[in-house]
Amino acid sequence: MGNDYRMTLIETDDGRLVSGLVKLETDSAVTVRTLNDTVVIAKEEIVARELSELSMMPEGLLDPLSEQEICDLIKYLASPRQVSARGSASPIDAADGKVPGAIEGESIEIVGKTAGSATSQPMDAFPADRWSGNDQLWWTGAEKGDLLEVALPLEKSGNWDLEIVMTMARDYAVVQLELDGKPLGDPIDLFNDPEVVTTGVLRFPAGELEAGKRKLGLKIVGANSAAVPAYMVGLDWARWVPAAEAPTSEAP
To answer: Which fold has domain 103-242?
Structure first.
């Protein structure tokens, strides 16, 4: 069994035991995907770490499959052209070409940037998908470790989710989202080849928040091994959604 599929067992200085697959590791932290959650653990909190001989895959997973189905599954997993996981299409209003209630990337307030240039980019030249307002915020000239921060005004206190759509292309980065300085979900691999497309609607639980100007960070943490290492990032739109609402679906 390859190391990428073996569980890592981590003990922290406060007595927690965390087991799962290491999805990302930096100089300061380890991101572990457990059976039920994604956990970011600071390396300074780790007192013991061990690579298990066991996989997270349950025993007997292939038992219900026929021999041909097992062969088809293995061929798919071995293919370099697997389908990227994407969210549903943006609910773009036909009247004005924009997502209702969205904070548009091209007009968003930039509050911090460690490197590069962040400008508006018209998306007319990319017919494989649709962008709200047919435009995006395009961050170029940055490197691994750089951070772009934008303002997300929140008008009302409450329990909120954040919906966001980004752009995927052959020269785009792997990005970790941060909300008010804290990691938000798993790192997002923005690589796609050959078409330039969106991620679809990604939804992240943000929790109980006070009204005011919240800060969304986009931190470049790497690039797909197949990507042209230009570390580009594109933000189409973001918007707050009450946590009790059903996930967004494409507008008719």
So the answer is: Jelly Rolls (2.60.120)
Cα distance between residue 161 and residue 204, in whole Å: 5
Q: Encode pLDDT of 223-248 as tens digits.
A: 998 999 999 999 999 999 999 755 55
Burial of 30 (0-12, 13-18, 19+ CB in 10 A): buried
Closest residue by Cα to residue 235 from 150, 162, 157? 150
Q: Dump pLDDT digits (tens) for 65-80.
A: 778 777 767 765 665 4
pLDDT at 250 over 60: no
DSSP readout, 197-219?
EE--BEEEEEEEE-SEEEEEEEE
Closest CA to 98 of 243, 241, 239: 239
> 103-242: same fold as 3-55?
no
Q: Which fold has domain 3-55?
A: SH3 type barrels. (2.30.30)
Report the SS3 class of residue 236. strand
